[in-house]
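To assess whether the prediction recovers the assembly geometry, we first specified each molecular entity separately, as shown.
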Amino acid sequence: MSQVLQTSKHFQRPRGLAAAIYKNRAVYTLLLPGLIWYLVFAYGPMGGLSLAFKDYRANLGIWGSPWVGMQNYHYVFRDAAFWRSVWRTLFINLGRLIFEFPMPVILSLILNELRMPRYKKVLQTIFTFPHFLSWVIVSSVMINFLSVEGLVNSIVKSLGGSAFNFLGNTTAFQPMLYITSIWKSAGWSAIIYLAAISGIDMDQYEAAQIDGASRLQRIAHITLPNIMPTVTVMFILQTGSIMSAGFDQIFNLSNVAVRDVSETLDMYIYRITFQAPPDFGFSMAVSLFRSVINMVLLVLADRGAKLMGGSGLFA
Amino acid sequence: MTIQRFFSCLLAAVMLTALCAAPASAQDDRSETFTYTWCTPGSPDGIDYTAGDDYARFFTEQFNIQWDKINTTFDNHLERLRIWINSGDMPDLVNEWTFNFSELQSYAEQGLVGRLPDDWKERWPNLANAYARTGVGDQIEERLGGTYALPHPIFADHQPVEPLVWHYVAFMRKDWMEACGIEIKDSYTVAEIMDIARTIKEQDPGNVGANLKLINTHVAYMAYMFPYALYEGSWPDGVFFKDENGQIQWGPAQPEMLEALKVYQQAYREGLINPEFYTLKTNEGAEDFYTTGQSAITIECGMAVFMDRYRADFEQNLGLDYDEVVHTAVITGMDGKYHSAELANYSGALLLSPQLVEDTERFERLMDFLDYMCTEEAQLVLRLGLEGVDWQYAEDGSIELLTSGTVSEKYETAQRCWSNVYVLSDDFGIINPTYPEAYRERVVELYELKHELGTDTVLPADWDLRFYTSPARDRISFVYPDEYAALILKDGDLEENWNAWVEEALNTYIQPVLDEMNELYGGK
Amino acid sequence: MTTERPRAATRRDRIEAIDIVLLVIITVWAFLIIIPVYNVIVISFTPQKTYLETPVLLYPKAITLQNYADLFEDGRIFAGYRSTLLILLCGLPLNLILTTSFAYGSSRSHYPGRRLIFLLVLFTMIFNGGIIPLYLIMRQLDLTNTIWSVVFAYGINTFYMIIMRNYFCSLPESLMESAKLDGAGEWRTLFSIVLPLSLPIMATITLFYAVDRWNEWYNAMIFIQRSGLQPLQLVLRAIVIESQVLDSYASADALLEARKFSMGLKTAAVVVTMVPVMCVFPFLQKHFVKGVMVGAIKA
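The predicted structure of the complete assembly is given in tokenized form:
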């Protein structure tokens, strides 16, 4: 697709371009409301990015604040805790891509194959419940269930095991992040895939059935390929937020006992900005760094998807 | 609502006529109503703080002022204010609760907060008097070249001891201790408290069983016992101090710190502390103490208002008599001395917007109001309610309460809005007759005991060090109680972990600051 | 047979082992969700003392409505509901119009600037200028302290827009071409051809936006100073104060504030927010459970 665009650009002369624009004027009217919104409310504040290289002075404004070059980065990059948090974030969130990302897809496939329509509706409603519980609540419930005196340990003890300290255990922390996250949001994220599945042309199933395809074959050859573009897009988008995912969760589930494995980049930024006087240049410097990594990863994922024969983001 | 408005207008009109008739009003014309935006944390929405009840009207009508209230919560207060102030949209009047000198300095330099006229202390003497009690006013003015903030005095007229120390004490189950034959004392060393916990663990005098929690509070409060009580250099306010050679040192790197951490770790590993205390959110540890009665020792604010609440909680939840079952005591170090860093007598500050200060008439009216709020007359109404309704002077001049309950129970506008206009409620809390006399006396006793036991172990405030600002200093972002708890919870050898932690902290953050401070203030 | 829906046809298949396995997996999973959620609901009806003694309650040992009474005590919640509904009523249509037209517009092929526009949009998903510049813009537009600041601050969620665009791209191009040949403009094609074929994704995105609006609080917290306009979630947060930051205050007053039965209040607040959404959910749900007969429309 992009190749087609590029070649057509090469061959178009300015007059042709004007004609093409004129021909597509209706498309631009479709884009216009959204573009205006993006320009005012997303690009309007974009000047704030320059604060990463400035010392923000409110009285001088964003543009008038003095440039300080790389000074903001100079301090961050020297801090060992910063680099540890960067690697930890990458590590934790790569794990999210591996363990958490497929779950909503699997869930939507299972739900789709379920035979009892009423039960299916009830189940679907149930799976969306946890989305409405904030992490503050989820963490409190987790603490109740997993504490030394909690339900899980009571069961373990009644089965003859000994109590396990889940909450203060550095090795259990990361799996706990994945499990709670799947628990909380798999059902909600599955809605997107269910929508994609609902969009599949029914003719395909009928044809397959006539050919005598089994259930698994139908999943593998019709459902999955049909939702694959959605899965790819979701995957790329998720990769693009790899450095910024999951703050609320980690903030609420972590405690000082697991601090060495829980200080992600967001937690680091939080600590820096709330314990020290506000330095907007400094926090912008760190968040710009994070955005750049996100962008690099997003582009890589997009390229990767295209190499693997998918369509990528830019379909 | 309209009826309320009507009445308030009517009342305002009546007041106005009265004021016009009075000769004193000739100099202050208050016929025009001024409206101020006023931002306070923790005050609930949906209450008319200007004219919602007689209590609010008593103050607003005298000065013909109205509030356009901005209510923040304690958890979003700081974030919202920072954005507003840094965008030049500061409310007229702000009760800042997390006063940070470096932040104030930056606002002052940029003209983002109002600067009071230089003669304000002569013009508003009552306010100036309360301000002087904080002891930091001059220090801040000297560094900023003017008055940019009015720090809230914790104590003004009723400061129990000088130098001031933090009010946290141990709340212990007296009945259990007596059942185990433990001596009831006014102060215990940390070792003694650990012994008490051991004994209670063995004998379980309350028959609590498996749910028994011995020393139970969250990380931030646990620090008042381990390690603050053991070593004064571990207090966040005292981490930078001058040693006997005049060199500035960092407390957490001293050998005393390691000793204190060892005690902390021992108490934890021995099971004397709630094994999952690090998961507790604020107050959850104390909740166990007064709600389920499953905890032996907790740490809490040693103020009469707290004791009174504990009394009510024990009665309601457990049917127990507070005076029989709870004992309050000072926690001392192994040497029996009270280790602490002097508590600066302020918490948060009142800030005025630059626009307000320039608007002379409105500014002066507000200052008149603030000045009045520091007088004894206003304090009595603030803390007790209206004279003749809630209290009156008895014949001997003492105060006689006419109704029971605290002022915030009686007037909804009082709660966390009016009560901290300038002087904090702690001050009057020392003499407030709404709380039982015995509790108030106990509070003063505990303060005096800390003072007595802390003669040479309370680090006096060194303002040069506490108010020192530099880019390097501003980058230190340790939450000390968290750091200490993380160290003792970590696997492996405590000494090794501590050494590694100290080394990294010094290299990255601390040493540059120590060098800067030693350059400026060292050796003197 | 051909007129029957395929789902109905599969029902006549033999019950395979895989059906049993799936049924068991999904049921266990659902139970793992229900137990804690149910626990949360039970806690909201439990007095503090009972909760502290037995935090994992599977049946209410003592029932109280105190937590709800505390929550509804002073009517602030109702003011919050009003603001949230207002935000929803003004904001949701804006979200949908902006997102749908933009997603459809950018899914069209062969117009100059397509790639550039898409890249510009993608850029905003990863980079943003921070809250202070946005605040300054809101102030310049005179939107601070009005509901409109909240409405406009969240116009297009690029994530949702891309998903929707992706769905539009997957529709057969021939449909749009034939509409064009019939003389339909792009807007008419969008409304008469594309949207009816996109009910599942429209229902999904509507639900997502609605729930986002329903749960929104951050923008209101920053852009609206005065009380009275604050949405439900902000009111709830103020009642159910998260008090971890209180630890370092020196004044007794602030510390006392932390002493409500916060877990009871928090869970009651959750129930209060969840119930209205759960009432609306089934109406949207049918659109993404049921299949769409693309073939039928094509024919």
